[in-house]
Design brief:
It is built from 19 helices and 14 strands. It is of the alpha/beta class. It folds into 2 domains: 23-203 and 401-415, 3-Deoxy-D-manno-octulosonic-acid transferase, N-terminal domain (Rossmann fold, 3-Layer(aba) Sandwich); 217-396, Glycogen Phosphorylase B (Rossmann fold, 3-Layer(aba) Sandwich). It has a 7-stranded parallel sheet with strand order 3-2-1-4-5-6-7, sandwiched between helices. Helix 11 packs across helix 17 (371-380). The radius of gyration is 22 Å and the shape is globular. The chain starts with a helix and ends with a helix.
Length: 416
């Protein structure tokens, strides 16, 4: 069964490898190649402590467990692996501690995983959310404990995994524990064959976020109200821009696309859809020269990665991307952390906790057709916007605690 998986994986890699290699910048290709094939030197750490291997696929997962990684790095050395370039870039900026080393996850072949483990000498491997790489789990669990942290199983993943339960069940059984965000995910994992005694409902580590305050002096003179459309996906920029132009006569709309490769695409879109009174800018341009914002409606493309969490601090209202199309939504918690009123679209399936926030009037959820009227109401009725922000912020802080529970599980596992 897993031999067949490896053959299919190798076949897919054969066709995808040239594209994956060439899409990296020339300066990145050699390093990417070495790490993907586990041709690495033994990581050098300043302190003598056990090494923990943590895998987080991309930006969202890295940021979700950042508080956990920083807490663990006080007592352990950490090897953090990612798959995407942006995940690695954000991790490198987020974790400056000498006890944290950041590498690409090797390709999912047992020989490469074995070589990687030999080099890093990890005492345990912790996978985040639903990163179930078969050969990684099989090889690592043969020599060290493997566990799931901040686990979740989306409805889409659950339907897909159910079709190959015979394949997934042995992987879940290899886990030392599966720490999940909520009861719904625990039920789904149990239905997929995970031993019930290994499933621990600890809460969502995203609720325990700590966001570093960053100054953005280039944005100090933007016209208010300032709206941030965070982590947007294709077609959402047009929806949000139309609602903004219908309701705001003077103010600023900041777009932060989810994927950096879309920066140029989004800039062209804004230029094509702007009206006479609109000024279109890129954040990188503002760093070079500050224009006048007098009587302007500004459309700003924020073209830096890894700063959205801190950027929400400057806004008057946050609009969460990935939710106005059938994508499943993006994380609204960074905006709630700064006590900002939050609007999402109807598609937040990847974040089931949003239902509670909506029912408690801590998040406003609307369809694309209702976005303009929602913006108008919150801008014209600041007390309503303030209540929305306070409700969301307070509910967020009542849900914290997953960090300590997860740390306890990890310490107990390492001590065995």
């Amino acid at each position: 069964m897993y031999f067949l998986y490896t053959l299919l994986y190798a076949l897919a890699l054969f066709f995808l490898f040239p594209r994956e290699y060439l899409k990296r910048k020339k300066g990145q290709r050699r390093q990417w190649l070495k790490e993907k094939f586990a041709w690495i030197e033994k990581p050098q750490f300043e302190k003598k402590a056990p090494v923990l291997w943590i895998h987080a696929v991309s930006v969202g997962e890295v940021l979700a467990i950042s508080s956990l990684i920083k807490a663990l790095s006080q007592h352990y050395n950490i090897v953090l692996t990612t798959i995407t370039d942006t995940g690695k870039e954000v991790a490198s900026k987020t974790f400056q501690e000498p006890s944290i080393k950041i590498l690409y996850l090797p390709f999912d072949f047992r020989s490469l995983i074995k070589r990687f483990l030999h080099k890093i000498e990890a005492k345990a491997l912790f996978l985040t959310e639903t990163e179930l790489w078969p050969n990684l789990i099989l090889e690592a669990s043969s020599s060290i404990p493997v566990a799931l942290i901040n686990g979740r199983v989306s409805e889409k993943s659950f339907k897909r995994y159910k079709m190959i339960k015979f394949f997934i069940k042995p992987l879940l059984e290899r886990m030392s524990f599966l720490a999940v965000q909520e009861d719904l995910y625990a039920e789904r994992l149990e239905k997929l064959g995970a031993p019930s005694e290994k499933i621990k409902v600890v809460g969502n580590l995203k609720f325990d976020l700590q966001v570093k305050e960053i100054e953005f002096p280039e944005l100090a003179h933007l016209n208010r109200p300032i709206l941030i459309a965070g982590s947007t996906h294709p077609s959402e920029e047009e929806i949000i821009l139309k609602a903004f132009q219908e309701t705001i006569s003077k103010g600023t709309l900041i777009f932060v696309p989810r994927h950096p490769e879309r920066f140029d695409e989004v800039e062209k879109l804004l230029l094509s859809l702007k009206k006479r009174e609109d000024l279109v800018l890129r954040y990188s341009q503002l760093k070079r020269a500050l224009p006048s914002f007098e009587a302007q409606r500004c459309l700003l493309l924020f073209d830096e990665m890894g700063k959205l969490s801190a950027l929400y601090r400057i806004c008057d209202l946050a609009i969460i991307g990935g939710s106005f199309i059938p994508h499943g939504g993006q994380n609204p918690l960074e905006a709630l952390y700064w006590k900002k009123p939050v609007i999402t679209g109807p598609h937040m399936e990847n974040f089931p906790f949003v239902k509670e926030f909506v029912s408690s009037y801590g998040i406003l959820q609307v369809t694309p057709e209702k976005l303009a009227s929602a913006l108008r109401e919150l801008i014209e009725k600041p007390q309503k916007a303030k209540l929305l922000a306070e409700n969301g912020h307070n509910l967020l802080f009542t849900k914290r605690g997953a960090l300590e529970k997860t740390l306890r599980l990890i310490r107990e596992l390492i001590a065995l």
